[in-house]
UniProtKB/TrEMBL annotation:
The keyword Transit peptide does not apply. The gene is ligA. NAD(+) binds at residues 36-40, 85-86, 117, 140, 176, 294, 318. HAMAP family: DNA_ligase_A (MF_01588). This is DNA ligase. Its cofactor is Mg(2+); Mn(2+). InterPro entries: BRCT_dom (IPR001357), BRCT_dom_sf (IPR036420), DisA/LigA_HHH (IPR041663), DNA_ligase (IPR001679), DNA_ligase_AS (IPR018239), DNA_ligase_CS (IPR033136), DNAligase_adenylation (IPR013839), DNAligase_N (IPR013840).
Length: 679
C-alpha cells in the first residue's frame, strides 16, 4: 500500500474510533459529549471516505451500525424484526435525490405517496402485546438486541397495558418514548436543586429516565409516547397495507399516534410539510429535530428494502442544528434594569442553524458553578427559536494544557457604578445595590419607561437615552419632562428640529392610561397584562399604592412573589418621590369608571379572543371586556357567546363557525366598546 492510501486508512480508523466514543457517551451513558451537528459532520466525512475507498469498507464501521450496545445490567431481548435507524437529508436538493433514488430503484417515475411525521426526539421502543396484553418492552439497542425495560415502560401512562377492539393476537408496536418540554424543564430544575446532573436535552432525559434499574424512578419522570410503526404481527391478522392506515389501526387499538401526521404525494408536498411543521415547532409541547417521510405503500416498502442500518423507503429531513461547539473567549458582566448582573459569554463566533452567534448567556453565578466552566473552555452552545443563546455544557475531553484556562470571577462591585453587589439568600441572582444611581439600571429603566407598551415616547430611542444619562441630563424618568430644547441640542447629532420633536413627543406622552403608567414604572415582574389587571381592579393609582399584600393577591394572575414586589416597590421612598415628580410634571390618565356589578352591561357573557387585534392588542381588549362584566376564556365551546376574530384567526374561528357561535370582527369590538364608553 502506498503512503497516501495508508494515510487514508489511518484517517478512517481514527474517525471510526472517534464515532465509537461519541456513540458510547450518547447511547450507553445518555450523556453526549459533542453536539449532533459535530457528530453528523464526522459521520459524513467517514461515509465519504468509505465510499471513495470501498476496499476499506467494514461491517464493523459505525457507518454500518445502528445505535449502541445494550447495557448488560438489563436482560437482553432479541428483536424479531430488526429496529433500524433512518437516513438523513438536510436540504431540498437532498430530498429530491431521495425521491429520485426511489424512482430509479422502482424503475418508475410515478408520483409516490408518503406518510409524513414529526421526528420525535426521544428513544425508540418496541412493545410486544400478546392477546392484547402488554407482555414485553425493549429498547432498540444495536438494532438486533435491545434491553428489557418492560417494568419501566408499564409506568408510562400514555402506553396502554391492554389494547382495545379487534387487535391481532400478537403485535409488536414501535414508537418513541419522549419527554415533553415542560416536564423536561421541571425535571432539570429539580435535578439542579438536588445538586444532581442535569440532562443535556429531552432526548437524553427520556433515555436516561427509561433505562433505570428502579422503575419507581421511571414512574416519577414525565414520559410520553407516540407509536409510529409495527414490528412483528401475527401473520393471519387483518393489517392494512398502507403505513398511514396502519397508524390509524394502532390508534383504534388504543395507542397514541402523533396527531400531525399527514399523507401527501410527491417531494414538493414533502417540502411543504417540512415548512408547515417547522412553523409549529416552537409551539409543539414536545421536542422534534426534523420530520420523517415514509413511502406509504407497504408493498413498495418491501420492493425498496433496506441497506445496512436504514430502510431505503424512509428518510429523516432534519432541521438546521440548534447546538454547536465553540470556544469561550471571555466573560463580561451586564447590569439590567432591576440591577441583576448577568454573566455574558463572549464566544468564538460560530454559525448555528445559519445565524452567527458570538454571545451567549451564562445566567448567574450558580449556573457558572454548575457548568464548572472556565475561560478558554470548549463549550456546547444552543440557540433555539427566539431564545437568547445559552451555554449548555463544557466539552471536558477538549480540556488540554494548551487551552490556558482561567477561572471566571464574579465581580464584587457593580461593573458600571462601582456599588457593592449583593446576593439575597435563596436567590440565584446577584444584584447591584446602586438602584437608580447606577447608570446601567437608570438607562434600562428609562428605556423601559419610554417603550411602546409603556409611555410610548416617539423618537426617544436607546441611543438617546444612553446619551442623556451619560451627560447627566436626567437622573430619573421624571427629569425627561423638564428637558429643554437647549439641553437636548448639546447631544451629538441633535439639531433644533429633532430636539423640538422630542420635547413635543414627551409632552404628548403625558396623556396615558393608568395601566400603561403602572407598567412603565418597571415594578419587578409587573408586565403588561399584570399592569392591566391592577388598573382594572383598583381603578386608581392611590388604591394600587395603598393596597396591601392580601388585597394584591386577590387580583387575577397576581401571585405571592409579584404581590411582594409591588408592596416593596411602593414602600421605597425614592420611588414615591419619582412618582410624585411624574404626576407634578403633568402625567395623567382618564378616570376608570367604576361599574357596580348590576351596571355591567356585558355581565354573564362569555367571549373568546383569537388572531391578531391590530388596534388594541388582545390584553387590552380582554381587560376592557372584563371591565364591562364579560368573561373572557381561552377556548371556544358551545357556551361561548361571541368569538372576536382578529387577523389570521385559525382553528378557533373554524370551531366557532362549526358551533354556530357569533363571530365579531375587530371593528365590531371597537364599536361595542365605544358604545359602552370603555374606549
Ligand atoms: N452527539 C452525539 O455524540 C451523538 C452520538 C450518536 C448519535 N447522535 C445523533 O443521533 C443520530 C443517529 O441516531 P439514530 O440512529 O437514533 O438515528 P436518528 O435519531 O437520526 O433516526 C432514527 C430514530 O428516529 C426516531 N424517530 C423519531 N420519530 C420517528 C418517526 N416518526 N418514525 C420513525 N422513527 C422516528 C426513532 O427513535 C429512530 O430510531 C445522529 O445523526 C446524531 O444526530 C449524536
Ligand atoms: Zn451598578
Amino acid at each position: 500500500m502506498n503512503d497516501s492510501l495508508n494515510q487514508i486508512k489511518q484517517q478512517i480508523s481514527e474517525l471510526r474510533s472517534l464515532l465509537e466514543d461519541y456513540n458510547y457517551q450518547y447511547y450507553v451513558m445518555d450523556n453526549p459529549s459533542v453536539p449532533d451537528a459535530e457528530y453528523d459532520r464526522v459521520m459524513r466525512e467517514l461515509i465519504s471516505l468509505e465510499k471513495a475507498h470501498p476496499e476499506f469498507q467494514s461491517p464493523d464501521s459505525p457507518s454500518q451500525k445502528v445505535g449502541g450496545e445494550a447495557l448488560s445490567v438489563f436482560e437482553q431481548v432479541e428483536h424479531r424484526v430488526p429496529m433500524l435507524s433512518l437516513d438523513n437529508v438536510f436540504s431540498d436538493d437532498e430530498l429530491k435525490a431521495f425521491e429520485q433514488r426511489i424512482f430509479d430503484r422502482l424503475k418508475n417515475n410515478q408520483a409516490i405517496e408518503f406518510s409524513c411525521e414529526p421526528k420525535l426526539d426521544g428513544l425508540a421502543i418496541s412493545i410486544l402485546y400478546r392477546e392484547g396484553k402488554l407482555v414485553q418492552a425493549a429498547t432498540r439497542g444495536d438494532g438486533r438486541i435491545g434491553e428489557n425495560v418492560t417494568d419501566n415502560i408499564k409506568t408510562i401512562r400514555a402506553i396502554p397495558l391492554k389494547l382495545r377492539g379487534d387487535y391481532p393476537a400478537e403485535l409488536e408496536v414501535r414508537g418513541e418514548v419522549f419527554m415533553p418540554k415542560t416536564g423536561f424543564e421541571k425535571l432539570n430544575e429539580q435535578q439542579k436543586e438536588k445538586g444532581n446532573k442535569v440532562f443535556a436535552n429531552p432526548r437524553n432525559a427520556a433515555a436516561g429516565s427509561l433505562r433505570q434499574l428502579d422503575s419507581k424512578i421511571t414512574a416519577a419522570r414525565p414520559l410520553a409516547f407516540y407509536a409510529y410503526s409495527m414490528g412483528y404481527f401475527e401473520p393471519e391478522s387483518d393489517i392494512a397495507n398502507s403505513h398511514f392506515e396502519r397508524m390509524m389501526q394502532l390508534k383504534n387499538w388504543g395507542l397514541p399516534v402523533c396527531p400531525v401526521i399527514k399523507k401527501v404525494t410527491g417531494s414538493q408536498a414533502l417540502a411543504e410539510y417540512y415548512d408547515w411543521i417547522g412553523e409549529q415547532r416552537n409551539s409543539l409541547s414536545y421536542e422534534i429535530d426534523g420530520v420523517v417521510y415514509k413511502v406509504d405503500s407497504i408493498e413498495l416498502q418491501q420492493n425498496l428494502g433496506f441497506v445496512a442500518r436504514a430502510p431505503r423507503w424512509a428518510t429523516a429531513h432534519k432541521f438546521p442544528a440548534q447546538e454547536e461547539i465553540t470556544q469561550l473567549l471571555d466573560v463580561e458582566f451586564q447590569v439590567g434594569r432591576t440591577g441583576a448582573i448577568t454573566p455574558v459569554a463572549r464566544l468564538q463566533p460560530v454559525s448555528v442553524g445559519g445565524v452567527t452567534v458570538s454571545n451567549a448567556t451564562l445566567h448567574n453565578a450558580d449556573e457558572i458553578a454548575r457548568l464548572q466552566i472556565k475561560i478558554g473552555d470548549t463549550v456546547i452552545i444552543r440557540r433555539a427559536g427566539d431564545v437568547i443563546p445559552q451555554v449548555v455544557s463544557v466539552v471536558e475531553e477538549k480540556r488540554t494544557e494548551a487551552a490556558n484556562l482561567r477561572e471566571i470571577e464574579f465581580p464584587t462591585e457593580c461593573p458600571v457604578c462601582g456599588s457593592q453587589v449583593e446576593r439575597i439568600e435563596d436567590e440565584a441572582i446577584t444584584r447591584c445595590s446602586g438602584g437608580l444611581i447606577c447608570g446601567a439600571q437608570l438607562k434600562e429603566s428609562i428605556k423601559h419607561f419610554a417603550s411602546r407598551k409603556a409611555l410610548d415616547v416617539d423618537g426617544l430611542g436607546n441611543k438617546i437615552v444612553e446619551a442623556l444619562v451619560d451627560l447627566e441630563l436626567i437622573k430619573n424618568p421624571a427629569d425627561l419632562f423638564s428637558l429643554t430644547v437647549e439641553q437636548i441640542t448639546t447631544m451629538d447629532r441633535m439639531g433644533d428640529k429633532s430636539a423640538l420633536n422630542l420635547v413635543n413627543a414627551l409632552d404628548k406622552a403625558k396623556q396615558t392610561t393608568l395601566a400603561k403608567f403602572l407598567y412603565a414604572l418597571g415594578i419587578r415582574e409587573v408586565g403588561e397584562a399584570t399592569a392591566n389587571n391592577l388598573a382594572l381592579h383598583f381603578k386608581s393609582l392611590d388604591a394600587v399604592k395603598n393596597a396591601n399584600y392580601d388585597q394584591l393577591i386577590e387580583v387575577s394572575d397576581i401571585g405571592k412573589i409579584v404581590a411582594e414586589h409591588i408592596v416593596s416597590f411602593f414602600a421605597e421612598e425614592h420611588n414615591q418621590t419619582v412618582i410624585q415628580a411624574l404626576l407634578d410634571a403633568g402625567i395623567s390618565w382618564p378616570q376608570i369608571e367604576t361599574l357596580s356589578v348590576d351596571e355591567q352591561p356585558l355581565k354573564d357573557q362569555i367571549y373568546v379572543l383569537t388572531g391578531t387585534l391590530t388596534t388594541m392588542g388582545r390584553n387590552d381588549a380582554k381587560a376592557h371586556l372584563q371591565n364591562l362584566g364579560a368573561k373572557v376564556t381561552g377556548s371556544v365551546s358551545a357556551k361561548t357567546h361571541y368569538l372576536v376574530a382578529g387577523e389570521s384567526a385559525g382553528s378557533k374561528l373554524t370551531k366557532a363557525q362549526d358551533l354556530g357561535v357569533e363571530v365579531l370582527t375587530e371593528d365590531d369590538l371597537t364599536q361595542l366598546l365605544q358604545t359602552y364608553g370603555a374606549i
